[in-house]
């Protein structure tokens, strides 16, 4: 059987540069997020208000809400979903979906922990310690899971709303959330990429054998 290769990925030079309007939006989102992170580290999550974040970012509170409907979204929302889906679509078509997802998510985790380690730790700490953040994270994970269902449908030929696709996608999202919680609850001592691998091992093989 001929092995199919991944579609060629465009180099940064090949990718269309965002227009001025889009660049301004990205800059504003990053400024709001950076202001929120700084204030939360200084005074805690509950003491940090949207008004304070807006003042630190030099925008209006209405601008903050235009980009982030609720305060929890400021620390949780990122631009990774579209990137993850693009990376998944670039994997070899004859590769098992679980392996494709494992590689894509390991890569994303590596980028996140390498480029924004403090932000990753803060976000995960808040998810573990603040009920409102954790609840919002579950809502966001559900939305990402629906996107994942569509991507999996493309690779498997199954319907995006097929039970098997939905169970797999939502089990993965739940498992990754638990991996992040485990990472935070244990003081970030374990490599998050290793926890991702263990999560996929459970999805693929079930629980390990009972220890005697």
Task: Describe the overall structure.
The protein has 212 residues and is mainly α. The protein has helices at residues 20-43, 50-57, 61-67, 71-76, 80-89, 97-115, 117-129, 131-156, 163-185, 192-205. Helix 7 crosses helix 8 (131-156), helix 7 (117-129) packs across helix 9 and helix 9 runs antiparallel to helix 10. The protein is globular, with a radius of gyration of 19 Å. The N and C termini lie far apart (43 Å). Mean pLDDT is 87; it is low at 1-15.
Write the layout of secondary structure elements.
Blueprint: H1 20-43, H2 50-57, H3 61-67, H4 71-76, H5 80-89, H6 97-115, H7 117-129, H8 131-156, H9 163-185, H10 192-205
Helix pairs in contact: 1-2, 2-3, 5-6, 5-8, 6-7, 6-10, 7-8, 7-9, 8-9, 9-10
In short:
It is built from ten helices and no strands.
Summary keywords:
single chain, 212 residues, mainly alpha, 71% helix, 0% strand
Number of helices: 10
Task: Give the ordered list of helices and strands.
Answer: HHHHHHHHHH
* Apparent shape: globular
Give a quick account of the main beta sheet: strands, pairing sense, barrel closure: none
**Mean pLDDT over all positions:** 87
**Distance between the terminal alpha carbons, to the nearest Å?**
43 Å
Which structural class best describes the helix and strand composition? mainly alpha
The helicity comes to over 70%
Please identify the oligomeric state: single chain
Q: Return residue spans where pLDDT drops below 50 for at least 5 consecutive residues.
A: 1-15
Radius of gyration: 19 Å
Number of strands: 0
Estimated share of beta-strand residues:
under 5%
